[in-house]
């Protein structure tokens, strides 16, 4: 099947800097003009993506990094200065949630792996890890009341082992430990 792209009036035909799938049929992207745009994938005879601009964020024109938590309809968006925003698909809104101070190389949502926890439960707290190009440290960010007008972020910095390139992150044992995986197969575990 072929793919067609249609733009709504407010959207531009700019190139994409970063993208993440919000749900099975929606994706979010940052454009080279600094727009955060929502794309809807409509599959009929031909797959069509219809884009609409959610907001304008000029600081994302040069650099953007994203990660999604599709089961909750959330996307984290980082800029070149370490400013992190949260897109909430339920409200189709973007809010400022944290400033980690450095350009992120990657952002990883953290989920607690527990038989008692429902992954679809939209709790009042979300957590994520930010890694940087230097590879020397990571930042753990815990955001309380993320679904409100006044989210509160708490940050913790951890040093990484030498030559550690982060490729995955998770909480284990009901959130007691943070485990970080490297591209070469090493693990770092933090209490």
What this model shows, in words?
By secondary structure, the chain is mainly beta. 0% of the residues lie in helices and 54% in strands. It has strands at residues 3-7, 16-21, 26-31, 35-43, 47-56, 65-69, 74-78, 83-88, 93-99, 106-110, 125-131, 137-144, 152-159, 166-172, 177-182, 187-190. A five-stranded mixed sheet has the order 1-5-4-3-2, with no helix packed on it. The protein has a four-stranded antiparallel sheet with strand order 6-7-8-9, with no helix packed on it. It has a four-stranded antiparallel sheet with strand order 10-11-12-13, with no helix packed on it. A hairpin with a 4-residue loop joins β14 and β15. The protein is globular, with a radius of gyration of 17 Å. Mean pLDDT is 86; it is low at 9-13 and 114-121.
Provide a concise account of the structure shown.
The chain has 191 residues and is an all-beta fold. It has strands at 3-7, 16-21, 26-31, 35-43, 47-56, 65-69, 74-78, 83-88, 93-99, 106-110, 125-131, 137-144, 152-159, 166-172, 177-182, 187-190.
- Report the total helices: 0
Helix-strand pattern, N to C?
EEEEEEEEEEEEEEEE
Measured on Cα atoms, how large is the radius of gyration?
17 Å
Q: What strand order characterises the main sheet?
A: 1-5-4-3-2
Mean pLDDT: 86
Major beta sheet summary = 5 strands, mixed
| Terminal CA distance | 49 Å
Catalogue the unreliable spans: 9-13, 114-121
The level of helicity is: under 10%
């Amino acid at each position: 099947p072929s793919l067609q792209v249609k733009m709504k009036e407010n959207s531009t035909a700019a190139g994409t800097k970063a993208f993440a799938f919000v749900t099975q049929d929606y994706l979010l992207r940052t454009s080279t003009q600094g727009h955060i745009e929502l794309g809807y994938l409509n599959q009929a005879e031909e797959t069509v993506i219809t884009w609409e601009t959610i907001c304008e964020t000029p600081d994302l024109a040069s650099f953007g990094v994203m990660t999604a938590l599709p089961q909750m309809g959330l996307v984290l968006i980082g800029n070149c200065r370490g400013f992190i925003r949260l897109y909430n698909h339920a409200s189709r809104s973007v809010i400022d949630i944290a400033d980690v101070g450095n350009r992120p190389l990657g952002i990883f949502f953290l989920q607690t792996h527990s038989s008692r926890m429902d992954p679809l439960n939209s709790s009042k707290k979300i957590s994520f890890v930010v890694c940087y190009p230097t590879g020397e440290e990571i930042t753990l960010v815990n955001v309380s009341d993320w679904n409100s007008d006044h989210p509160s972020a708490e940050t913790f910095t951890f040093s990484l082992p030498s030559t550690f390139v982060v490729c995955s992150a998770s909480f284990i044992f009901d959130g007691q430990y943070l485990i970080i995986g490297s591209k070469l197969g090493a693990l770092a575990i933090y209490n």
